[in-house]
């Protein structure tokens, strides 16, 4: 957890190898940001970002910021929430809530399982050759009967388990 906080701090400070944002009309190494973008970055391991979430305020928001400088007991609950939302993007409860990304991942997994099953089915029908004759049940039965007729390995093998008088397997 400490490593993540240190890494996010290093990224925010513009550590080595990090590209800085610049507007098309300014120099590439200036510290100015383009208007719609900010360096706002809050996460559970580093909950207090260096700058507020909203940097460009409307007239109502500026009036609320002026009212904030007075007594907080005069502020309503909605105004306090609005002030919080100017400073921070999410609460801890919103940061900690579960996402529904697992549904997308499982959907992709099942899609690729289905696609793979269709490919295997298609290959068995159109690509792979027919089974050889030696794998049919009829051929296997004839081969077993041939081994028994020749009395192959009568001491410990297959022929030792066959009763030749009753024509059935020994029990």
Automatic annotation (TrEMBL):
* One Pfam family hit: COX4
Regions crossing the membrane:
104-122
Record keywords, A-Z: Membrane, Mitochondrion, Mitochondrion inner membrane, Transmembrane, Transmembrane helix
Per the annotation, which location comes first and is thus the protein's main one?
A: mitochondrion
Query: Where located?
Result: Mitochondrion inner membrane
Q: Which InterPro entries match?
A: Cyt_c_oxidase_su4, Cyt_c_oxidase_su4_fam, Cyt_c_oxidase_su4_sf
Gene Ontology CC: mitochondrial inner membrane; respiratory chain complex IV
| Membrane topology, record value | Single-pass membrane protein
Tell me which domain of life the UniProt entry assigns to the organism this sequence originates from: Eukaryota
State the Gene Ontology BP annotations: mitochondrial electron transport, cytochrome c to oxygen
What are the boundaries of the signal sequence? Answer: none
Q: Which CDD domains match?
A: Cyt_c_Oxidase_IV
Pathway membership, UniProt:
Energy metabolism; oxidative phosphorylation
Q: Which PANTHER family match?
A: CYTOCHROME C OXIDASE SUBUNIT 4 ISOFORM 2, MITOCHONDRIAL, CYTOCHROME C OXIDASE SUBUNIT IV
Q: What job does the chain carry out? A: Component of the cytochrome c oxidase, the last enzyme in the mitochondrial electron transport chain which drives oxidative phosphorylation.
The UniProt entry's sequence similarity note says:
Belongs to the cytochrome c oxidase IV family.
Subunit structure, as described in the record: Component of the cytochrome c oxidase (complex IV, CIV), a multisubunit enzyme composed of 14 subunits.
Q: What is this protein called?
A: Cytochrome c oxidase subunit 4
This protein's species is Crocuta crocuta (Spotted hyena)
């Amino acid at each position: 957890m400490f490593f993540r906080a240190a890494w996010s701090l290093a990224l925010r400070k513009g550590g080595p190898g990090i590209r800085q944002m610049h507007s098309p009309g300014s120099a590439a190494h200036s510290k100015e940001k383009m208007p719609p973008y900010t360096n706002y970055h809050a996460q559970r391991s580093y909950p207090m970002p260096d700058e507020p979430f909203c940097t460009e305020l409307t007239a109502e928001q500026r009036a609320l910021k002026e009212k904030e400088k007075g007594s907080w007991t005069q502020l309503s609950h909605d105004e306090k929430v609005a002030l919080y939302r100017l400073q921070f993007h999410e609460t801890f409860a919103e940061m900690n809530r579960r996402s529904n990304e697992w549904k997308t991942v499982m959907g992709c997994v099942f899609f690729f399982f289905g696609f793979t099953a269709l490919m295997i089915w298609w290959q068995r029908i159109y690509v792979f050759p027919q089974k050889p004759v030696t794998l049919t049940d009829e051929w296997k039965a004839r081969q077993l009967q041939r081994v028994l007729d020749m009395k192959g390995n009568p001491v410990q093998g297959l022929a030792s388990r066959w009763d030749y008088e009753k024509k059935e397997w020994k029990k």
